[in-house]
UniProtKB/TrEMBL annotation:
Gene3D superfamilies assigned: 2.30.30.50, Nitrile hydratase, beta subunit
Residue span(s) of domain Nitrile hydratase beta subunit-like N-terminal: 1-103
Protein function: NHase catalyzes the hydration of various nitrile compounds to the corresponding amides.
EC number: 4.2.1.84
Keywords, in A-Z order: Lyase
Coiled-coil zones: none
Protein name: Nitrile hydratase subunit beta
UniProt domain Nitrile hydratase beta subunit: residue ranges: 128-220
InterPro entries noted in UniProt: CN_hydtase_beta-like_N, CN_hydtase_beta_C, CN_hydtase_beta_dom_C, Elect_transpt_acc-like_dom_sf, Nitrile_hydratase_bsu
Enzyme class: lyase
Catalysed transformations (reactions): an aliphatic primary amide = an aliphatic nitrile + H2O
Protein family: Belongs to the nitrile hydratase subunit beta family.
Length: 222
């Protein structure tokens, strides 16, 4: 989806300052929001791509003025409403109006969430089952389309040429997962783009390179 959330490479926003204090939670409400989002992902259920798509649907003015974790809570509330687990009135008034089948939506256990965060999950599919459409060293072009839904390819590389540096393996496709259309497994490639190819002679350092992991569906032969 093309929107204000895709700030990469856009003019007028300046550099992104990174400070050590920005890494940690600034306020207790942010810690609580993080915990709620993680705890509700199981019983709702939703995945990260679905969560991101909801954030991307925010009006531009709200996206720019809301705190990072305000957006997280908004997306979680929308996904809970989609799943029929809560109503708008319940969220507004803070009072339960109907019961939820806890057998169909069992609550997440705290210890299970901690274990999941520590161990992670291997999301790869067997490469032998999905032939690669491109090879390492090949020059490719990023498709210059304007998707209506979630996408993991930034606008500033669309239509640009890059060189594949690595085949990362086979993974589910974020765009279709976000839309509830299934995993559509495919190869993911690390692609190198020169700053000059992306921003021309006006690039701050034309000799620099940007490396992006891009799904096969985003690329085309030249």
């Amino acid at each position: 989806m093309d929107g204000i959330h895709d700030l990469g490479g856009m003019h007028g926003f300046g550099p992104v300052p990174i400070k050590e204090e920005d890494v940690a939670f600034k306020w207790h409400c942010q810690r609580r929001a993080f915990a709620l989002v993680q705890a509700l992902a199981g019983p709702t259920p939703y995945v990260a791509d679905m969560h991101r798509q909801k954030i991307e649907q925010l009006p531009a003015v709200d996206y720019l003025r809301w705190d990072y974790f305000d957006k997280w809570l908004y997306a979680t509330e929308e996904l809970m409403k989609d799943a029929g687990l809560v109503s708008e009135d319940e969220l507004r008034e803070g009072k339960m109006q109907f019961s939820v089948d806890l057998d169909a939506h069992p609550p997440s256990r705290p210890e299970a969430l901690v274990d999941a965060m520590k161990t992670g999950q291997d999301m790869r599919f067997p490469p032998a089952d999905y032939p690669a459409g491109f090879i390492v060293g090949q020059t490719v072009r990023v498709r210059a389309n304007c998707p209506q839904g979630h996408t993991r390819v930034p606008r500033y590389v669309r239509g640009r040429l890059g060189k594949i540096t690595k085949d990362e393996g086979v993974f589910q496709f974020a765009d279709t997962v976000a839309a509830g259309q299934g995993p559509h497994p495919q190869h993911c490639y690390n692609v190198a783009f020169s700053a000059k190819a992306l921003w021309g002679e006006n690039a701050e350092n034309p000799g620099d390179y940007v490396y992006l992991d891009l799904a096969e569906a985003y690329l085309e032969h030249i």
